[in-house]
Amino acid sequence: MATLRDMLDKDALTAHCQAMLAGGRPCNHSKRMDIAALAEILGWDFDVVERRPELMRRLKCAECGSRDVMIHVTPLNTSGGGDWHAS
Ligand SMILES: [Zn+2]
Questions:
Q1: CA 60–ligand 1 middle distance (angstroms)
Q2: Per residue in 56-67, pLDDT tens?
């Protein structure tokens, strides 16, 4: 399962524009998405992995207006520095 609820505080969702602009220059605009804001629209049980195409259809690049947007899911803790807990 990779619902928005599962991903909150655990994974980062990044939208990455794949459109080619005039002159063959790639747009490359990317932005971290606000999971809580997405959940407001899609619901906390929205499975991002299973329903990725559905999510991608809803996105539009803020820079160039393209809908050729890819979603990347990356774990928030990529440092590999081991667990630590605040108390
Ligand atoms: Zn773009």
A1: 8
A2: 999 999 999 999
Beta-strand relationship, 69-75 and 30-32: unpaired
**83 three-class SS:** coil
CA 87 to chain centre: 30
How many residues are listed for the chain in this entry?
A: 87
34 CA distance to ligand 1 centroid (A)? Answer: 18
Rounded to the nearest whole angstrom, what is the distance from the C-alpha of residue 83 to the centroid of ligand 1? 37
Q: Quote the mean pLDDT of the chain.
A: 90
- CA separation (Å) from 61 to 58, 77, 79, 84? 10, 26, 29, 36
CA 31–ligand 1 middle distance (angstroms): 11
